[in-house]
Amino acid sequence: MRDLARRIPLALAALVALVAAPGLALAQEFQKVEGAPRQEMAASPFVVGAYSFIWLAVVVYVFIVARGLARVDRELRDLEQKLQRGGGPNR
Amino acid sequence: MISNAPVEPVMGFVQKIFYFHVPCAIMLFLSTFACAAGSIAYLFKGSEKGDRLAVSAAELSVLFGACVLVSGPLWGRKAWGVWWQWDARLTSSLLLVLMMVGYLIARRYAGPAGRKLAAALALFAAVNVPLVYKSVDIWRTVHPQTTVVPKLDPRMRPAFWSAFLLMTLTWSLLLALRYRLENARAALASARLEVDDLLEMKR
Lengths: 91, 203
Prior knowledge:
Number of domains of chain B: 1
Structural class of chain A: mainly alpha
Strand content of chain B: under 5%
Shape of chain A: elongated
Oligomer: heterodimer
Number of strands of chain B: 0
Shape of chain B: elongated
Largest sheet of chain B: none
Number of strands of chain A: 0
């Protein structure tokens, strides 16, 4: 009797699996749908975004390097003036 | 030229990103090689000029790497439906850019040995470049293969090569400008030392 009680749920599970298997297989397949609306994304925001980022990055980099050059030139001039004053305030 | 180039039939208008995405990737490779060449000169000959070239080129690697890593996902989102795929080309490119970021971090924060550590890292980055380039042929990937440019539609070639020329010119000017800054910094450091020496002598 106990054996039968164990076997019934197992048999039921096997039956469910057997019945569900073709359904599962069907769910894995692609089906063609006629007349469905196409999901379209506009391409221009992506193109504009990519081009803008590239050129903006270049311009920002030029700005940073040019600012660095100006600062170094200024410091060099300050040093020259300090030398001409014969040591200046540090003396 | 780019607007006059024909629209690619499969991807459509978004394929126009190709005209600057690929030259940016080539500039990334070129910068990494220039950084490695400078690093070799610095490591083996102690060349200060080589070191200045290396740091200038490393910054350009990061700049153009960022351009590649931003324009690529923008293209991919429209063409593949996803921003990012952990495939061989994308992952190895990201790794290359991270190595160059590592180069700059090592120079800035690794103390007195930072320049040599960074130079060694640049050599590893340069070795990674051929791997990044060939990754699309070696592994299965969603990214287009290396045959895209050689097999480019003849009507698209003028747009591509003019964009490539423009990007090469931009890269050369940026490198020259950045190298000038590095020279100016070196001149400033040496002038400071001279002034300090002079002041010391006068005391």
